Amino acid sequence: xxxxxxLNETRDKLRETNQKIVELETxxxxxxxxxxxxxxxxxxxxxxxxxxxxxxxxKTKKQKEANIGKKKELDTLKEEVTESEGKLHAIxxxxxxxxxxxxxxxxxxxxxxxxxxxxxxxxxxxxQKGNKIRTEREELEKRYADKKTKLNQRMEMLTKETIQAxxxxxxxxxxQQGLRIDIKEAxxxxxxxxxxxxxxxxx
Length: 203
Fold this sequence. Notes:
Helices cover 97% and strands 0% of the residues. By secondary structure, it is mainly alpha-helical. The chain is built from two helices and no strands. Helix 1 (2-55) packs antiparallel against helix 2 (61-202). The protein has one domain (2-155): Orthogonal Bundle (Helix Hairpins), CATH 1.10.287. It has helices at residues 2-55, 61-202.
């Protein structure tokens, strides 16, 4: 998510940079037109001043001073032209710097898009692995539940069998006790009969 935000910010900066470049290029065109006009005006003014100097060479000192003033005005125009050229150079330098920035931002945008695609791929792989693990867990839980049910049923059956075995044991034990009493009584009766037979034989 943070990379998506960075990508959006990079795109916004790129749009701002492109807008600045367009504005600077427009300013350059206007400045060039102004410079052309200024140079044309300067040439016309220079011609006019030269003609004025030629026409006033024989005039008074006051007229000469006026011509000197015109020369200063021409120098001022030349300085303005030089200053305009300096501004144009600075603007071109700014455009190169902005173009470098734009190229860098475009490269960053491409890198972020590649990283974003990789993250989408990794997220899809993780989602598929999660689904697989979830399915395996559900299968294990089902097998465990089935085994638990079978074990519970087996335990119930064994419990019933144990209860029945206990009952059978008690019944057999009681029967054994009864047989022991019968055997004891039979032995006593046999001994009694034997003693009676002996007494009769002795008589």
